[in-house]
Amino acid sequence: MSKILAVAFDLDGVLVDAKEWHYKAFRRALNEHGFDILPEEHLAKFEGLPTRKKLEDLAERMIIPKKLIPIIQAEKQKYFLETARKYCHDNPRLRNILFQLQSSDRRLLVCSNAVRNTIETLLHWMGIFDSFDFYLSNEDVVLPKPSPEIYLKALHLLSVDPSELLVIEDHERGIEAAQKAGAHVLQIGSSEDLTIELIEETIQSIESMSEALEPFKKQPIPFYFKRQPSTLKIS
Fold first, then answer.
1. Could you tell me which residues come within 8 angstroms of residue 179 by beta carbon, excluding any fewer than 6 positions away?
2. Which DSSP string corresponds to 171-214?
3. Omega within 30 of 0 (cis) for the link into 146
4. Residue 228's pLDDT is what?
5. What confidence score (pLDDT) does residue 166 get?
């Protein structure tokens, strides 16, 4: 039977809704050098990717000079934190959710395509930095999501099996990464969907279904859950 011993959270879209902040900061940094990216292109091609990967793609397509990559990346980070500081505040609701999970002796971590500085800063501003055992950023892996590397590394550091890890994600890249690593996945639409009731319901479903399937399988089966507006979809 699979017991959930750890819960991994993506950052943007799960703990905080920062997509718009990222896009505006990225566009502003590009604009400073005479370049632009429309919302539709960013959403379709770049959402969920690290800033450096976005810039490398633009350079490969000869839209920006390669030499500008580190400059624009630094400017984007600066603009992002300026915006985030206005809207990212202490979050007692999230802190309570994490406290209740910790009270059940579950280990908590953050696995994000963001850089370390962004993860640390936002977690501190929300007052939840100390709620996590550790975090992993895009600087801790060679390949970002959708590669499973970040979750495989998390499993190694946790010393747990994939069947003992629940990953909470909002974007297809993160879902793909978690599923390739063999973990259970709960997909939500935004940070507002995140409740202790939803997480505990998902964990109970995983544990009860894995127990029911125990006599019929040799390997644990990873489950995928998607939060719908009024129900929990299981597939």
1. 148, 185, 222, 224
2. SHHHHHHHHHTT-EEEE-SSGGG--HHHHHHHHHHHHHHHHHHG
3. yes
4. 58
5. 98
The pLDDT of residue 210 is 85
Which residue type sits at 180? K
Query: Domains in the chain, start-ordered, CATH in brackets?
Result: 6-17+89-234 (3.40.50.1000), 19-87 (1.10.150)
Give the pLDDT confidence of 48-79 residue by residue, as tens digits.
889 999 999 999 998 999 999 999 999 999 99
What is the per-residue pLDDT for 188?
96
Whether this model's pTM surpasses 0.90: no
Please state the φ and ψ torsions of residue 6, each to the nearest 5 degrees.
Answer: -150, 150
Task: Calculate the alpha carbon distances from 138 to 99, 104, 149 in Å.
Answer: 26, 29, 10
Instruction: Quote the pLDDT of residue 13.
Output: 94
- Take residue 67 and report the two structure tokens written for it: 């030499």
| Residues sharing a CB contact under 8 Å with residue 4, sequence separation 6 or more, in sequence order | 106, 164, 165, 166, 184, 203, 206, 207
- The residues of the chain scoring below 50 in pLDDT are 229-235
User: How far is it, in rounded angstroms, from Cα 217 to Cα 120?
Assistant: 41
Query: Which of 167, 108, 115, 168 has its CA nearest to residue 140?
Result: 115
